UniProtKB/TrEMBL annotation:
Coiled coil (residue ranges): none
Lineage: Bacteria, Pseudomonadati, Pseudomonadota, Gammaproteobacteria, Oceanospirillales
SUPFAM superfamilies per UniProt: YgfY-like
Record has S-adenosyl-L-methionine as a keyword: no
Chief place where the protein resides: cytoplasm
Source species of the chain: Oceanospirillum linum
Full protein name: FAD assembly factor SdhE
Cellular component, GO annotation: cytoplasm
Amino acid sequence: MGIEEEVKRLQWQSRRGMWELDLMLVPFVRDCFQGLDKEDRQRYEQLLECEDQDLFVWLMQRDLPEEPEYRVILEKIIAYAEHGDLSNFKSL
């Protein structure tokens, strides 16, 4: 599967049924996924397996996931939602 097809598939999977999640996940995968390294791409796909309630709490920064791998990609999603790009992204 090519990267364009993968992005389309993930855009569909990123539509969660919660407006707040859709507003953060869909633009991120559309605009940033191709620029992520292999590990972050895998992290994003793993993140999509989580429950919507957990994603909401994490993306609204009310709590952190126990898994450090999720924290890495969540930081990028939140940074993109706040700033519109990842060019100045620095992990915490």
